[in-house]
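We close this part of the discussion by returning to an individual protein. The encoding preserves chain order, so positions in sequence and tokens coincide. The sequence in question and its structure tokens are set out directly beneath this paragraph:

===
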Amino acid sequence: MKVFNNLTNQLENFETVQENIVTMYSCGPTVYDHSHIGHARSALTWDLLARYLRYKGYEVHWMRNITNVDDKIINRAKKLDISPDTLSREFTYEFWSDMSTLNVSWPDFEPRATDYIEEMIKFIEALIEKDFAYEVNGDVYFKVARHKHYGQLKKQSIEQLKEGIARVDENDKKEDQLDFALWKAFPDDPKTSFKSPWGFGRPGWHLECSTMIKSILELKFNVQTLDIHSGGDDLMFPHHENECAQSECLTGKPLAKYWMHNGMVMVNGTKMSKSLNNFMTIKGALEEFKPNTIRYFCFATHYKRQINFTNEALQSAENGFNKLFNQIKKRLDYLKNKGVTFKASTLKENLKEQLEQALISEFEKYMDDDLSSPQALALLFENVNDQSKHDTIIYLLSILGFDLVNHDGGSQNNSKAVDKLVKTLLEMRDNARTNKDFATSDKIRDSLTDAGIIVKDFRDKPSAWSFSN
């Protein structure tokens, strides 16, 4: 198997630090709002990598963090007049809901930043002791010039980096404008700050990931180097560069052997971003499209390339996956009736007599080439007209993480029509309730219940609905 390593800028043979064990870390969400399609692409990409490595026989230990202390969280919590912890917990639950709906595997470790404050303080103290960091009026900064490999991910020298950053980041506290914060002074408030040897404050974002990685690796695996560090390519600099610098200066070991990054989801040539207000949330997309559609939309383009997001592109993805699904639906229904579980390992055991090794080998050839999922999907389309290969295609789709149990393969236009009709009825019911016409309100609800639709009412937002089965 080969993967593209952004550290060396080369396609490399994949060889683990420990035999047959993969330690893998993915940068997770900062939980202050709903996740969008860009976040979905990153999560689905690393879910695919973890699934495929497990398929290859590796013992995979996947870590994905939750950043639950950050300026964005603090500022939004103030606007909503709730605690940052309440806000971050709410959107952690929303993120988990999105991931579950998208059939993203649960990580083996999901550390929250605030659970590692003590370890972060010790990390900083060790860097200060080794003269890699310094304190100024309650802030602590990392000495970038002391890391001889700084710029290795960005592929620029320190001098080149200074030319770009000095124009936009003037800070009189720093010894050097490239230096970055390990600890930020913050007013004494139990909701937003933590006690440290340098006064009350909170950790820098870059420090959080390094500390959680170090803590888990040393405690669970007795190593200091990850096999794979992954995330969006917008994180390569400065976030991942700074992680490398502080971790490698502390331990003397590489933070990760392979650095893998997914391309951005673009909207009209610009990165999908909350700050630009050009995003669609995962929940918003799921109101119109099925979870398998979003997975197919992401995997139809190689993970390193950018994807241009439009509703038309999602509709095309839905039509494409439905076309594939409907071809194998008869066989799927037969297997469902027999009680087969649609997990890759279970399918391999139950269908081993029907699996075609030549097709599997061709699939592996593409996936072993840096997760070339577009070619793998094209291969399935090329063979789907042959009914004798349907068991193998079902097996390979399960390896890619598609949910073959809950996808009905029906027309999305019909689905949209049902959704529009139900929402219209709910609006009529809400109006009736507002006007205290409870007889009409109850009649609409009873009719929906008889049709197999569950209505959920909320105090401060419109009613929602779901099918009862």
Summary: Residues 311-337 form the longest helix (27 residues). The longest strand covers residues 226-232. The chain has a mean pLDDT of 92.
